[in-house]
Amino acid sequence: MTQLLLLIVALLVLGHVPPGRSEFKRCWKGQGACRNYCTRQEAYMHLCPDASLCCLPYTLKPPPRPKGEYS
């Protein structure tokens, strides 16, 4: 009986655990993640629609702008 009770409690607790990495929204063409803070291996690029930071890994660089776009 105690094992059944322990199993039910464990299943209830595991059912309320939030998902891991899927909680972050993607940004910058799917390369970055919207977060409140960027990690040490990431750089802030711009704001996401929900006003959080779009964090990109340092290994990824934004594509270069065409020369005459903002002249």
Automatic annotation (TrEMBL):
Beta-defensin domain ranges (all copies): 26-55
PANTHER family for this protein: BETA-DEFENSIN 124
Protein family: Belongs to the beta-defensin family.
Name of the protein described by the UniProt record: Beta-defensin
Keyword field: Antibiotic, Antimicrobial, Defensin, Disulfide bond, Secreted, Signal
Record's subcellular location: Secreted
Pfam families with a match to the protein in the record: Defensin_beta_2
InterPro entries: Beta_defensin_dom (IPR025933)
Gene Ontology biological process terms from the UniProt entry: canonical NF-kappaB signal transduction; cellular response to peptidoglycan; defense response to bacterium; innate immune response; positive regulation of chemokine (C-C motif) ligand 5 production; positive regulation of monocyte chemotaxis
Top-rank taxon, per record: Eukaryota
